[in-house]
Amino acid sequence: MSDLIVGISDIKITNKLDDVIITYALGSCIGISVYDPVAKVGGLLHYMLPDSALDAKKAKDNPAMFADTGIPMLFKSCYAMGAEKKRMIVNVAGGASILDDTNFFRIGQKNIMAMRKIFWKNNIMIKAEDTGANYNRTIRLVMEMGKVFIRSSGGEMKEL
Amino acid sequence: MTIVDRILKSINTIPAFPATGNKVAQLLNQADYSVMQVANIIKFDPSMTANILKMANSAYFSPLHRISTINDAVIYLGQKNLLRAIQTAGISKYYKKGALGYFDKTTDLWEHCVAVALMSQILSKKITGQEDSTLYTAALLHDVGKIIMGEFVRDSLAKISTLVSEKNMSFLEAEEIVLGINHADLGGKITEHWNFPVEISEAIAYHHRPDLLEKKEKIIPWIVYMADQACLMMGVGGGVDGLAQRAVSQLLKKFNLRMRDLEMSMVMLSDDLDRAKELMSIV
């Protein structure tokens, strides 16, 4: 069994049942876990910013950095390994914000909004989520069970 | 003895800061100095010598040829980078044990501090048009208080976390209430104890609340704050304090920045971090 570590602005896909895909330290970034229980394909995306219009060249080099390029890439990579959209289970976590941030650094909220917009346009339902608030999160997708576990800063590991 | 007395007493147990950095800085400020003189100061400090060579050869400074002597490193790095390399190498040893209590891994604190130092330069270039070595040092040292506070925070974590989650306090405010001092003030005292210039110790003491500093025109504390917050949002070295941080609302207006500028600086930091892996690994 191996641990696949997803860095910041990174994506990992697998169809090995003994793999665990992990991303650490989501602050304002968002982690999206997808899993097809029939094809046994799972993927985890850790994107940093909402909109690739910020830097088109960067988005081309590393689509996983932005919501609007990373999310399509996550789904397409899973389809390429036999997953089907209608069976995909989607879980999300992250998008934290600092306290009372009314007018600056709203990256957490912007990341959440960008994701919702993309899911809404594409008719994708989120199964469970742990987003917002002001703590960091770690996500683990355990392929064998297809279950997603979240650990918040200083806390215990819990199933999402 | 109260907790705060015990914390303050621990300052005296931290080893003295290596004088190499300040000696080189003084020399570089003189109108006339030779590469040999600079190299001789560094050579006097063997662990510094090893670290400078390692850093000069790292991808971050990407030399065309292998640099094998301190003289070559001094010439290749140049004034600005040399000072930075010396401070990074000198500071790294204090972060070796990390700050368990705040972080899961011992290397997290160091990675966070290097990231904030790199981010401070990206922001400085955007705001003032140039990089700034004093700012770099302040950013690198901003969380030095955590090396002492870590064990005290670990022992009182339940109390601190309760204040954060139930009273909507920032982690820093809760530290101060439970322990009698916060890690920023403590870091200011540690760097005072090490005889760093006052603009550095002030920037560290106020790195979570630059708006409370009387001399508000000083920009170093503001940039350290901004760089720290940006790295925490990116998840570079976030610890138990997470994003339980106070927002200082004047920030963007003060420097005439837009959200977009901050997002762009995060993209730029991602590139710097890829190139700075060796800098990180000296701890």
Describe the fold and architecture:
The complex is a heterodimer of chains A (160) and B (283). With 160 residues, chain A is of the alpha+beta class. Chain A has helices at residues 56-61, 67-80, 107-121; strands at residues 3-5, 10-14, 20-26, 30-36, 41-47, 89-94, 128-131, 137-142, 147-152, 157-159. In chain A, strands 1-3-8-9-10 form a five-stranded mixed sheet, with no helix packed on it. A five-stranded mixed sheet of chain A has the order 2-5-4-6-7. The longest helix of chain A is centred in the C-terminal third of the chain and has 15 residues, at 107-121. The model of chain A has no long low-confidence stretch (mean pLDDT 94). Chain B is an all-alpha fold and 283 residues long. Chain B has helices at residues 3-10, 20-29, 35-43, 46-56, 70-92, 108-128, 133-140, 146-155, 157-167, 171-179, 183-193, 198-205, 220-234, 251-254, 259-275, 277-281. The chains are: A alpha+beta (160), B mainly alpha (283).
Characteristic key phrases:
heterodimer, A: 160 residues, alpha+beta, 60s Ribosomal Protein L30, Chain: A, 5-stranded mixed sheet, 3 helices, 10 strands, B: 283 residues
* Category from helices, strands and their pairing of chain A: alpha+beta
Structural class of chain B: mainly alpha
What would you say the CATH architecture of the domain at 3-14 and 97-281 in chain B is?
Answer: Orthogonal Bundle
Major sheet of chain A: 5 strands, mixed
Annotated CATH homologous superfamily of the domain at 3-14 and 97-281 in chain B = Hypothetical protein af1432
Report the β-strand fraction of chain A as a percent range: 25-35%
Rg of chain A computed from alpha carbons, rounded to a whole number of angstroms:
15 Å
- The CATH C-level class name of chain A: Alpha Beta
| Strand order in space, largest sheet of chain A | 1-3-8-9-10
Quaternary state of this entry equals heterodimer
Low-confidence stretches of chain A: none
Give the biggest beta sheet of chain B: none
User: How many beta-strand segments of chain B?
Assistant: 0
* CATH fold assignment of chain A: 60s Ribosomal Protein L30, Chain: A
Number of continuous helical runs of chain A: 3
